[in-house]
Protein 1
Amino acid sequence: MLKLSIFKWVPDIVQGYQRDLRIRWALAEAGFQYEVMPKAISELKTPDYRKLQPFGQIPAFQDGDLTLFESGAILLHLAAKPGARIDLTGSEGLSKVTEWVVAALNSIEPFVMNMYEIELFHANEPWAEMKRPQMANMLNYRLKDLEAYLGDRSTLLKTFSVADIVMADILRGVENYGYLKRYPNLQRYLKACLARQSFKDSYDAQMAVYKLNEPSEKEKQRQMAAASPKAD
């Protein structure tokens, strides 16, 4: 049985954007059955969980005796796993899909995350007003290159792959803040990826877990305090 460790609940502001969604999406595309292992925030610091994920993050993944962490590594494992309903390597082989998974995580995601964190958590802080133009320029530099590469493509490779899963999930992090407006190819690409039934089903499944496990207001405050960054 494939097992995926997920958050039992997260605050509303970040619901729907946790990285286990990438793995759910790939599993749905492949047609693999799996079991979710919901974790409270406090459980991520336990020795048992750190054996699965040394940094106490979500997701962690188990395939029999094999354990994996980091969404990119898990996606590439699933792409190479036999028995999938579709070829998650995009019909061009594991090396090419690896190239684009790494590109999404290294060349695009850091710049997206800089803007996402400013807009989501610090939008009204004075330092954000000074930092935003610089961060936006750096993001636009990368998005411009990706826009040019895509052209009229609807996928990064010849067919849909795990590279599209991770790239689309990254791009949607800044879509709502208008950072894709000047990039029609990226908008079209993202719309096509998110229109897939596997994405919709995976998103709904993630949100259903949060709704089922929504804590009281007092417990929410306790969990948020526990999640504050600090050295162990």
Note: The first strand starts at residue 2 and ends at 7.
Protein 2
Amino acid sequence: MSFLLFQGSLVVYLLATAAYLVFFLSQKNPLRRTGRTIFLAAFLLHTGNIIARAVETGHTPITSHHETVSFFAWSVGCCYLSFRWRYTVKNLGVFVSALVLALMVVAALSSRAIIPLPPALQSWWLPVHASVILFADGFLALACIGGIMYLLQERTIKKKRFGLFYTRLPSLEALDKLNHHCLSIGFPLFTLGLITGSLWAKQAWGAYWHWDPKETWSLITWFVYAAAVHQRFTVGWRGRRVAILSIIGFLAVLFTLWGVSFLLEGVHSYVS
């Protein structure tokens, strides 16, 4: 059942991305509403997939590579829909749907085998820590997308090439507000994720911190976002500099999630 729901959500995400892309090029409003409706349908199918996978595995499905990437894609979609419910940022859905689709393709190419949990993961800390971190990463992904859109729009304005991107991307002010909103939610959630991870490590291995590669890179990522938040809220950084830090921070997030597991050995290496 979970396989069918996953495949269905993947196909519908593809349709949503296509609808959003056609809207981006044509700017016909009915296509925007169509893309939004299809994306919501894909998200609901994806939610059903995660629930079904949890029933099949007997635990929160965020331990294997397939499950983690799929849950990350779902969290990005969830964060986007929660943001979209309160704010409107022109054509944000085009970029978000493309990212979600890319993550779903990666998940589809990963093994769906159900692997028994190692003793350290057989804890109620699993859904708490992992879900908080992945929701944080969802908001930080939106901040990264906003940063990319900001740099594209800024480049267009500086070069005075008022063509495709200029008329379709939001204003620099709107993109800066998007960054502000996402960092304001994503950074505290990421901090909470680190705290819950430390508490879980104490319970599982007897110490709050081991300087494991994944823990170390999580801390590096935290410092990148801490710098962005500090400079934004105390020094008054806006625009380009915060956009660049948001992109760098998200690259660190991706490396922490997957690069560390594949390239560096540590106590988290069994989470593939």
Note: Residues 117-272 form one domain.
Protein 3
Amino acid sequence: MNSVAWVCTGGEGPTNDFDLHSLPEPSCICAADSGVDLALSLGLKPDFAIGDFDSIVDVASLSEITYDMYPTDKDYTDTELLLIHIKQQNLPYILLGGGGRRFDHLLHMYSLFESYGPPLHWITCREHMLLVENSISLPLRFNTTVSIVPALISGKSSVTSNNLVWDVKDYEISSSSMSISNKVLNPPITLQVEGPPVFLSIVSKL
């Protein structure tokens, strides 16, 4: 893949023990509001930032970053403004952050994928959500906890797995039907997906 944006946002994100080198190299690094803090904590310098920056630890950190400032009272969240920007660039993206803390923020983040497309990877402090559009084979460690969930709220897919403790066959993955807290039995595991993409959620911290 030649061009991919790394999008850093607020909420719980990956820590320094996550191997960023395992991800496709970014053509640009962008941040929404306190996503600037996340980027800097990971040793990343954003090429562009957007938001009202009411949650950022040190506004002075913006001095060496190109950014667009918005008022606090607005119709879009800072993350949505950034995803609008990314979509206008026609770039696939990897999402860092956005986990935990407030359920309303988490649910809104998830809902944005309907309008702007789901990320190729979504990494929080506790899980790595990997987008699966057709099929995938992964050499995950024995007993790793994984879940299969829809990548889009409206998505309804048929999924078949191999080498999980509780394999699924032509199983519906949707907002009302998911495979939660499954386990790797024999690596590599494989998934076959028919229909809209799904996320394979790989739990890194319980």
Note: The two ends are 32 Å apart (CA to CA).
Protein 4
Amino acid sequence: MSAAPPIVAADRRVAAVAVLGSAALFGTAGTARVLLQPAAPAPGAAAARLIVGAIGLVIWAARTPEGRAALLRLWRRPVIWAMGVTVAAYQLFFFLSMSRTGVAVGTLASLALTPFMAGLLGWALREGAPGFIWLASTILAVSGVVLLTVGAGEGRDVLGIVFGLLAGASYAFYTVFGVRLAHQGEHPSHVLAASFAVSGLLLIPVFLMSGTWWMSWSALALILWLGLATTTFAYLLFGVGLRSLQPGHIATLNLAEPVFATLLGVFVLGEALGGLGALGCVLVIIGLGVLGVAEGRRGTS
């Protein structure tokens, strides 16, 4: 393991696009579940997603001798096990939140405060101050997500919102420590593979206790999509951001997820968006655009 190389503006532009790509894939999870297996239990679907996704990430990381050595080294580090616990917690709390409050409110509760938590935690751990541009873009994007949620008109469930906030805290933790390990020279895909393998192992009992809902072609298709597309491939894209971006910036860029999820709901599932929802989408896009332009103009760190 060696120190990470200097980061240039082009790296940040590529990283920002990659994180937005991961957000787009994350945003397909709710629609995929509705189309393929709407009755899938939230804990079982979350566990299946993590188990399959973790297998994909480990296979990708272990394809080289360097990757295999990195996995063995990382699994000896307590922080990887802590990240694995929070990855598992995020999936469970996120799916539980959506199952109680609906996709829009669950996504809001899970993601709205995450950029602030990730930015402040990263700052406290000396991963860099997020800056005023990040704060302005995050406020814009969070305001947009709030309007998106109000426009969706879905139910309010206090416990569901608490689950969402716990999901956001879990997401902030593993984002910050993933960035920290990447800055120490670990390859992001190795960090993600090692931590997701831990979470996959933890969730095997949850999957086994979730029943036989997965014994159909539609359920298997859902599991493969959630596992390989919205986890393995999405987190490989997400990992590009770990090396080049600050934790708060990554979390802010991931606020694009509810926009993609909402647009899929409108154009694929025929859901209504409304004026407030449309305004919310615009605000999120503007906020992310401001942050993306700022990342592209930053010099070498």
Note: Residues 9-297 form one domain.
